[in-house]
Design goal:
Layout: H1 2-16, H2 40-46, H3 54-63, E1 74-77, E2 81-85, E3 90-94, E4 100-104, E5 130-137, E6 142-149, E7 156-160, E8 165-172, E9 175-182, E10 190-191
Parallel strand pairs: 4-10
Antiparallel strand pairs: 1-2, 2-3, 4-7, 5-6, 5-8, 8-9
Protein name: Secreted protein
InterPro entries: CueP-like (IPR047808)
Pfam family, one: CueP
């Protein structure tokens, strides 16, 4: 029975993981799967993540080259926690109160729907590309203004203050795009709707 519950919880996590909208609309409250109590330290050590907190795990996994990404681990970024599962065990790693991780995959020709960013499966179109990013909150304060290179998965991630909303503008090769964002508890951690156009 316990194995059945674990498999059910893992399947639910996969259904709600990033790179799938899981039928969630922006105005619906996200639903987290049940957390299965496990020994966090042993789980993290088994996946070469020991000694890392939630933010460090996110920063590490998002930067792993696609060819080296673990195939036995699902990692779904939520507003306040990182959900990790290997199909047998699941843990929720808290992210703290002071930061919200937003992963952005600008695109030119093709994209996919996404709500919660999956650190091990999400793929964007513009991998390893130099882009300019400006993130401005609704009061006009500039939160980010920098040149960055997208990760091997085509995304780039930013730690933003919690409970802010605003606009992200990306420029690449003479193309520009904008999109709104919200770093609220119900906000998406995966932004794949930012189309770059002339």
């Amino acid at each position: 029975m316990r194995r059945h519950l674990i498999a059910l919880a893992a399947a639910l996590l996969l259904a709600l993981a990033g790179c799938s909208n899981a039928s969630l609309e922006a105005d619906q409250e996200p639903v987290s799967p049940p957390t299965i109590t496990t020994d966090h330290a042993d789980f993290l050590a088994a996946h070469d993540l020991d000694g890392m907190d939630g933010k460090q795990i996110i920063d590490h996994l998002d930067r792993v080259p696609v060819a080296d990404r673990p195939t036995d681990l699902m990692a779904s970024v939520r507003a306040d926690q990182l959900l990790l599962t290997d199909g047998e065990q699941e843990i929720a790693v808290p992210l703290g109160e002071d930061g919200f991780y937003l992963s952005v995959a600008p695109y030119v020709d093709q994209t996919h729907e996404c709500y919660y960013h999956s650190l091990t499966t999400c793929r964007g179109e513009l991998a390893n590309q130099d882009i300019s990013v400006r993130i401005i909150d609704e009061t006009g304060e500039v939160l980010v203004d920098e040149q960055v290179t997208t990760f091997d998965n085509g995304f780039v991630g930013f730690w933003l203050p919690r409970d802010v909303a605003g606009t992200i503008e990306v420029t690449h090769g003479g193309l520009t795009g904008q999109s709104a964002f919200s770093a609220s508890n119900e906000g998406a951690t995966c932004l794949t709707t930012l189309k770059l156009e002339a």
